[in-house]
Amino acid sequence: MFKHIVFLLLCWPLTTFGQSAYPTLHANKLAHAEAITPAARPFSLHDVRLLKSRLRDNLERDSAWMVSLSADRLLHSFRTTAGVDAGREGGYMTVKKLGGWESLDCELRGHTTGHYLSACALMYAATGEELFRLKGDSLVQGLQIVQQAHGNGYLSAYPEELINRNLRGQRVWAPWYTLHKILAGLLDQYLYADNQTALEIAKGMGEWAYEKLRQTDEATRKRMLRNEFGGISEAWWNLYGLTNDDRFRFLAEFFYHNDVLDPLTRQEAETFGTKHTNTFIPKVLGEARRYELTGHEPGAQTARFFFQAMTSGHLYVTGSLSDKEHFFDPAHHSAHITGYSGESCCTYNMLKLAHHLFTWDASPVMADYYERALYNHILGQQDPSSGMVSYFLPLRSGTHRVYSTPEHSFWCCVGSGFESHAKYGEAIYYHRADELFVNLFIPSEVHWREQAMKVRLESDFPHAELVRLTLTPERPTRATIRLRYPAWSGRPEITINGRKISHKGQAGSYIALTRTWRAGDRIEVRYPMSLRVETTPDDPQRGAILYGPIVLAARAGTEGMIDPAPHSDPSLYNDYYTYDYHIPTSICDSLTIAPGELLPSLQRSSSALSFTLPDGRILEPLYDIHRERYIVYWHFPNPANR
After folding, report:
1. Is 480 exposed, middle or buried (0-12, 13-18, 19+ CB in 10 A)?
2. Where are the alpha helices (DSSP H) in 11-110?
3. Which domains does the chain have, with CATH numbers?
4. What is d(CA 632, CA 397) in angstroms, rounded to the nearest whole number?
5. pLDDT of res. 566
6. Cβ count near 280 (within 10 Å)
7. Distance linking the first and last C-alpha atoms of the chain
8. How far apart are CA 627 and CA 382, in angstroms?
9. What is d(CA 204, CA 198) in angstroms, rounded to the nearest whole number?
10. Among 19, 51, 125, 16, CA closest to 469
11. Confidence class of residue 271 from pLDDT cuts 50, 70 and 90?
12. CA–CA separation, 438 vs 511, rounded Å?
């Protein structure tokens, strides 16, 4: 059945533009205008279409998994909690229940439905396929009935008593975290699929929360905020922007977590310690949105400082961060290259933060990070053979990815994965006035409506260095095309309509091409790529090998792997946190040649992005190694001992 759905989706016309056209940043839907003037604006996903590539393959597999999940199953726990019958013979009790984190005994149940609402909206915008709008509509209609049954605006798959336990400081998993996913999903349904009912449901949730919390004393507020609450502050800010209702601004400010955010505003890096990483990033996203809507400068300072702190010592070479979901001291970075490094939700949220920051400053640093994390973590999160996704990106030598199951996992990283693989078109292009930024080299086409121009990007990146842009304005149009000059690239060679041009660009900047463009004009850019080694912050003899922005790894076989076949025992695949990788002692990650001698000796295959080590092992993109062990970080010899 699943393969049949994949076949149907592969036949869909995913390269056509949808009819809906939302102005950038959904400005036409904001009741409270943004307080800042962005340096660059993103395009709506409605105006970007992926062309055939490794990334679009992921999108198609993601969409197939989404299609296989019915609205009744995603609504089951909501209906059960509210006592709502599904309206069919036998009622909701006949629905096949979801497992894992969506089980009826899991306190986080319902979070996947929120992510799924967002993913349907994003997939509809990214493909123009009506099926995803209809699936979103079905869920919204079902949630409306559930909310009406509660009678006070409350909406969740668990009883309100879990919120009460949080307020009393009693043990409970993360009830506001789950409400954030539902609220964010409803807002995405409104923004990307124009579902007005979704906005009304979201407003009802906000009205319930306001009445619940408006008389809460400060001691209770601080106590409840010690429990993980995800990005609900960002969602309240978004709802405030869409309604200009001060009750929702009150909620956004209520969820300002002083213990986390005040030290970041003061730029105190020691605040991280070994705290839970993905409770920090969504709170920072809330401050980023606060700044955009209100001009609150401390919010911008917090976001910028946090991003700088993460990228200056906390990141792995893949752009991911956290070990067993927690921060660690960069001075002991190598000790945290484990089988539980790189929680996928952390990278999902860091990409959101980079997206915000780029719109403020149009800094190519943000684009460099986005590219690294997208290709080396998010792209490889999905297993090409099954469409399932991994919770962590294990980096210890000899480990391997551990994947979800279609119906018995539903971890947080499954939910964010539904979204991540639907929105690859989000950060390829940006614009301002008569300038177009080309940030990523993903085969795609963008409709630049303000300039009545379409731009088509074709490439085999990262397998090839050539990127080709074909411009089709409706009439001759003077504009500037800003081509990203990545920090990893050699000096780009550029031609326009076959004629070589000179430029003064520097690595880590943009190359500006300004002229009057006519239909059929072609820009070709060759970005020289080379091999290099990046060592860990604490150990100059421990490092990974990259080609351009792409992390390379060596396959290390399947010896000792437990049940490498997909999905045969869901209990094994749900044991993501204490998984025993049974790493064979024979796996060796030590090299006898220093980087300066090693890199020139690597031989590239003529037919693939792979390189042969002197000992015969093959290096290839980490994102392409699945259901097999691998080696990313190597031990290099100490020059002092040679």
Report:
1. middle
2. 54-68, 71-82
3. 431-526 (2.60.40.1180), 531-641 (no CATH)
4. 7
5. 46
6. 22
7. 59
8. 11
9. 10
10. 51
11. confident
12. 10
Does 563 have pLDDT greater than 70?
Answer: no
pLDDT at residue 344 tops 90: yes
Residue 131 CA to residue 137 CA, distance in Å, equals: 10
List Cα–Cα distances, 231 to 17, 228, 255, 415, 590, in angstroms: 31, 9, 9, 14, 42
Q: Running DSSP on this structure, what letter comes out for residue 373? A: H
* 209, burial (CB in 10 Å: exposed 0-12, middle 13-18, buried 19+): buried
* Sign of the torsion angle spanned by Cα atoms 188, 190, 194, 195: positive
SS3 592: coil
Q: Give the model's pLDDT for residue 641.
A: 62
| Residue 350, pLDDT score | 98
Comparing CA positions, the residue from 503, 509, 490 lying closest to residue 365 is: 509
What's the pLDDT tens digit per position in 307-338?
Answer: 999 999 899 999 999 999 999 999 999 999 99
Tokens 């709506």, located at residue: 44
Half-sphere exposure of residue 13, counting CA atoms within 13 Å on the CB side?
Answer: 5
The Cα 497–Cα 514 span in angstroms is 14
Please return the burial class of 218, using the count of CB atoms within 10 Å of its CB with bins 0-12, 13-18 and 19+: exposed
Asked if 411 and 89 touch (Cβ cutoff 8 Å), the reply is no
Q: What is the pLDDT of residues 13-68, one digit of tens each?
A: 343 443 333 334 577 899 999 999 999 999 999 999 999 999 999 999 999 999 99
- Rounded to whole angstroms, how far apart are CA atoms 610 and 367? 25
Pairing verdict, β 453-459 and 444-448? antiparallel
Confidence of residue 408 (pLDDT cuts 50, 70, 90): confident
Query: Average pLDDT, stretch 242-262?
Result: 97
With a cut of 80, say whether residue 8 has pLDDT above it: no
pLDDT-derived band at 94, boundaries 50, 70, 90: confident
Q: Where do we find the tokens 């069919």?
A: 88
Q: Could you give the percent of the chain with pLDDT greater than 70? A: 92
CA distances for 84 relative to 60, 69, 204, angstroms: 34, 20, 18
The two tokens of residue 509 are 């900047």
Tell me the average pLDDT of the chain: 92
Residue position matching structure tokens 């997909």:
566
3-class secondary-structure state, position 446: strand
Residue 356 CA neighbour count, 13 Å, CB half: 27
Span 151-158, average pLDDT: 98
Q: Three-class SS string for 216-252?
A: CCHHHHHHHCCCCCCCHHHHHHHHHHHHCCHHHHHHH
What contacts 281, CB < 8 A, 6 or more positions away? Answer: 306, 346, 349, 350, 353
For 580-604, give one letter per residue: b (16+ CB within 10 A) or e. ebebeeebeeebeeebeebeeebee
DSSP assignment string, 36-64:
S--SSEEPPGGGEEE-SSHHHHHHHHHHH
Q: How many CB atoms lie within 10 A of CB 524?
A: 17
Task: Yes or no: say if 362 and 545 are a contact pair by the CB < 8 Å rule.
Answer: no
Residue among 444, 436, 430 at smallest CA distance from 355: 430
The owner of tokens 């009935």 is 145
